[in-house]
Amino acid sequence: MQLTLPSTAAPQVVRHGRVAARRARVGWLLAGLVTLALGCDTEPAAEIGEQLCGPSEAKVARVVDGDTIELETGERVRYLMIDTPESTTETECWGAEAKAANVALVEGKTVTLTYDVECEDAYGRLLAYVELSGQEINRVMIERGHACVLHISPNGDAIADEYEALEYQAQMQLPPAGLWATCDPIPCG
Coiled coil where (predicted)? Predict the structure, then answer.
């Protein structure tokens, strides 16, 4: 069976066909330009992230406390996903121990910084996961009982459960690790 369209419909079909063809050509042209622009990028993605957030590798000049370091560049880095007891303005239970652990782990060493969704806090500090020799220091601080989990969305949304599990293990091991064995009440969070 053959469908016959009224004579007034035929030009409309042709016109829509031409418009669709023109849109398709423009779409392919735009896609080509985007591909060309991306292909001509001379900077690796890590360098782009570095420009937006901060250095991806840096030497730690000093440890401020259990969850903050200062780089040789003068920038401060607040560890993502953890909170340690205070040791700078007021000494809380386990604050000095948390700072000492962080000093032993990273002070004077070159670390790798990985950023999440937001890379700076309201105080101008970089927000990062700090890695040294293949170990993420943020996790190490929790595993050893020097830190509590501090999840501030949107950073860490994809790994919050993993961090909570690490904290739970530190609390439940016998004897409990670090501040979980010593402090009552727990001074973070």
Answer: none
- Using CA atoms of 14, 16, 17, 21 in order, give the dihedral in degrees to the nearest 10: 140
Q: Is 18 a catalytic residue?
A: no
Reported as a single tens digit per residue, the pLDDT across 64-96 is: 999 999 999 999 999 999 999 999 877 799 999
Architecture of domain 48-182: Beta Barrel (2.40)
Q: Is position 86 annotated as part of the catalytic site?
A: yes
pTM above 0.90, yes or no: no
DSSP code, position 185 = S
Give SS3 for 156.
coil
From the list 86, 97, 136, 143, the catalytic residue is 86
Catalytic annotation present for 164: no
Helix (H) or strand (E) holding 180: helix 179-182
147, 128 Cβ separation under 8 angstroms: no
